[in-house]
Fold:
Amino acid sequence: MFTSCVDEFSELNSDPSTITKPDIRFLFTKCEASFQPGDYAQWFGGFNDLSTWSQTTVSSGGNTTRSNRPTDEANGCGYEVNEVLRYANEIRYQISLLPEEEKATYEYIQY
Structure:
């Protein structure tokens, strides 16, 4: 015999598309966590390009066009970069919807 939620199903079941106001703190955390899947291989294999892209280091000759191509060919971290940018853009969008006085709360998180 199987048991399931019958009486409160409609109240307990939630549709992800009905979230009208996401918590920006959680979006920021998800943005940070998007780099996680690379682990050591990402750090070891793509450090030069990733550190240049994140403006942590710059070679004496400056950045090349290679650092402008966040793909597997360029540095091995294309997927992670795309995920981070997706969350970063969503954070900026959600902050833009806030009233002016509330935007100041997220001054350092949006850029």
